[in-house]
Recover the amino acids of this structure.
């Protein structure tokens, strides 16, 4: 039975406030009931809803019937919950949070309990990058025959229309957008390898655990080359790097250091980092964070 009111966190409500109609709105309204039904079905006891929580899911801290702590996650409809479950099964706790149960119909995931308030971002930058590199290395496994995951090439193709439209009004950043478009066309065709990727890997996605010190959470799994995954890690704490002296050289050193430490081609990592920085910068500007968007484009220009 629930021991506390089941209420979606304000951060989640705010993130989805623009969706006033359709399945997401209906899901939000039904969420307290859905959570209680899942608690009953899996014989879980609710401790509390995790707050502030994320932007794309409700997370609740629960106890299993034998008293073991766990985490219950409800992804927003339309998010690839089934693919997240498939990736977690493939990793089976190696470098990532362990999946305990999954509701294929409703999308709920029961996960091992990690320390949600302690991520790699709590460590000094050099130590955080070292631990992150060691964690992501364990996630790069063959995807297996008949895998259900989208590919990097497919993801980039979906992005191309938005990138092209943004480039038409990008002003001084137009050459950067054009370079990102060209990289998006060329890099997938020349990919030298195919691995299961986290897809959204960064320091904030690696939490402290009991079983091992650090485990990844919240994948948006893709299949493709490792440089695509590693590019997002290059962008971690980019604001600090941009604010420092010698920022362009420091950005290029970070690319070289991460590429060499994980045996990834430097030039391909540079290309994917530029691509992901431009794509993220345009997205941030589009949702209203123009300052962060411009900083991401500045970082891309360093490369």
């Amino acid at each position: 039975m629930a021991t506390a009111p089941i209420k979606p966190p304000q951060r989640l409500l705010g993130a989805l406030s623009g969706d006033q109609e359709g399945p997401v709105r209906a899901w939000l309204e039904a969420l307290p009931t859905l959570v209680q039904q899942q608690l009953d079905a899996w014989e879980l006891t609710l401790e509390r809803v995790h707050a502030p929580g994320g932007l794309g899911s409700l997370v609740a801290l629960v106890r299993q019937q034998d008293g073991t702590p766990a985490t219950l996650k409800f992804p927003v409809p339309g998010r690839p919950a089934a693919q997240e479950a498939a990736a977690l099964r493939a990793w089976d706790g190696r470098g990532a949070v362990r999946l305990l149960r999954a509701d294929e119909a409703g999308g709920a995931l029961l996960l091992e309990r990690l320390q949600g308030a302690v991520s790699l971002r709590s460590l000094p930058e050099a130590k955080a990058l070292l631990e992150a590199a060691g964690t992501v290395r364990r996630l790069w496994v063959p995807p297996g025959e008949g895998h259900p995951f989208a590919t990097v090439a497919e993801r980039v193709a979906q992005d191309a229309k938005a990138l092209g439209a943004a480039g038409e009004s990008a002003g001084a950043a137009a050459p950067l957008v054009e370079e990102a478009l060209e990289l998006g066309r060329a890099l997938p065709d020349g990919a030298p390898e195919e691995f299961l990727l986290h897809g959204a890997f960064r320091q904030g996605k690696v939490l402290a655990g009991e079983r091992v010190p650090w485990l990844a959470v919240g994948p948006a799994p893709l299949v493709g080359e490792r440089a695509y995954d590693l590019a997002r890690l290059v962008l971690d704490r980019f604001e600090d790097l941009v604010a420092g002296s010698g920022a362009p050289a420091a950005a290029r050193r970070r690319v070289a250091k991460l590429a060499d430490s994980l045996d990834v081609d430097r030039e391909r990592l540079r290309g994917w980092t530029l691509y992901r920085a431009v794509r993220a910068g345009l997205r941030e500007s589009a949702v209203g964070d123009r300052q962060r968007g411009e900083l991401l484009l500045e970082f891309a220009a360093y490369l």
Observations:
- The chain has eleven helices and eleven strands.
- Residues 266-286 form the longest helix (21 residues).
- The chain has a mean pLDDT of 90.
